[in-house]
Amino acid sequence: MSTTNTTPATPQTAPQYPEQVTGMYILAKALKNIGIDTMYGLVGIPVTEFAYLAQMEGIRFVGFRHEQQAGMAAATHGFLTKKPGVLLTVSSLGFMNGLTATANATVNCYPMIQISGSSVREPIDLDQGTYEGLDQLNVAKGLVKAAYRVNKPEDIPTAVTRAYRAAISGRPGGVYLDVTTPCLGAVMDKADADKLFFQPVDPCPAMIPSDESVERAVQLLASAKRPAILLGKGAAYAQVDDKIKQLVESTGIPFYPMSMAKGLLPDNHPLSAISARSTIMEQADVVMLIGARLNWLLSRGHGKWNPDGKFIQLEIDPKEIDCNRPIAAPVVGDIESSLDAILAKLKDVKMSMDPAWVSGIQAESKVKNAKFLERLQPQTVPMTHWSALGSVKKVLEANPDVILINEGANTLDDTRDSVDMFLPRHRIDCATWAIMGMGMGSMIGAAVATGKSVVAVEGDSAFGFSGMDFSTACRFNLPVTVVIFNNGGIYNGIGVNPSDNGDPAPTTLDVKARYDKLGDAFGAQTYYVTTPAELFTALTEAIASKKPCLIDVQLAADSGKESGHIGFLNPATLIPFTV
Ligand code: ADP
Ligand code: MG
Description:
There is one protein chain. The chain is of the alpha/beta class. It has three domains: 20-194, Thiamin diphosphate (ThDP)-binding fold, Pyr/PP domains (Rossmann fold); 211-363, TPP-binding domain (Rossmann fold), CATH 3.40.50.1220; 377-569, Thiamin diphosphate (ThDP)-binding fold, Pyr/PP domains (Rossmann fold), CATH 3.40.50.970. It is globular.
């Protein structure tokens, strides 16, 4: 006989409380047992009761308007805490909306666990058509670090522990845990259920590099005339800030931070080579990569890079080594263990660095920084990205402990280049995939995970992907401020539709839109600003309020250019603003 699934969350037999419990209770307890204190998600069949049970267990549940944003919050929570962020989704579409964020977390090496309810197996496997029927486990598999399904309540603690270990050990990433509706609703005696929980021993083991690899790396670094240290977000994630500082300052080697490693050492540190990227690429003879991949963000090790330069790479994933360019000295291990070993050996070696290398970078940086600052001086009205950023820079640098979330095209590039960071893990952006649509989720995840104030600087297009979840920040009364740079479009607001049908151009949004009124709808403190002075006052006040705030920053429609230097893909005749 076939089974039907009309009331998916209802167990066959109702549990006799308090002697009996359901799979949902075991799942909530199992999460709490391994130290999960927060869950992000969006409820519905079959996980609603589970979210209530989690709250009963003392797990904070942050309910979103869209699963993708809940997932971005969980991912950011994972990045900032080294504990997996947890995302809860319903079956089918909810699962898929959330999976976007879990895949993004995997690419970015953020630890998170997506827990999704899923429908009854049998009609899915026979493709018979059932409520929200989707073979979720197999959909997820190709996009995540690990994927598991749990079918029996007594297996739930094991499943949760496996997901936890997979998310945080080795290279961190996104894990999918599929919990079927019958499993969520299955009934067990409480006494038997309570015997299932256990504490995993050493869930994120240190990975010690070989002595030989450390020796090789130290010798190569010591032999360099023009060395550089390149810090990636893996270095920020590792939370070994003092050791990185010691490495840089004891050797005197200039460092270059990738965008989310900004602030690991202050951007105005005398050894910061942040303004001398091309010089590092073209002239360094040895570059030590710490938690950074030689991927597209670093021209995959080609392009401007010195063809004779050698690389040392501190990396946890052995598969990463040599992926784009031969690595002369791989140090495979966790960054903390690798740095401990390297720092110990460095005490006994003599460096060969040419002092002119550092003084040259410092002189170049001084000239470039002064020139860059000039860009931010004009009080242009209507505002450009630069005149607006002049004010944003002043306010954020006066509030260094505010976490900055940043996405957009020009808004991303120009904010990253303008706003100096002074503290580790205070800048979170759209990262490795350079995607849009992480803003509100990451902002909320950062505020919830740290309790700190957060400012999200968003392009108007970027904000559109996640804007509705500003309401989540309002419901939870978080100390967050959204700053929307409205130039009325993707790249800018002056695109021209080459046909005569009267539609907007593909890049055109609405330069007259009043995003502040969206904030009003949810009770936020809002501002509409048209001058750099107004922006300065509004942002200062918003941060000080420690309440949800939204600032609509009116830019000129022609501020901003197409980013990414792919103008050759766009015939100039069709898209005049790229010429
Ligand atoms: P960025 O974009 O800032 O350059 P990436 O995300 O490309 O940073 O690179 C981060 C790297 O750091 C990844 O290859 C990841 O495997 C590595 N990583 C993450 N955590 C650790 C750790 N604890 N120890 C060593 N390597 C790590
Ligand atoms: Mg725009």
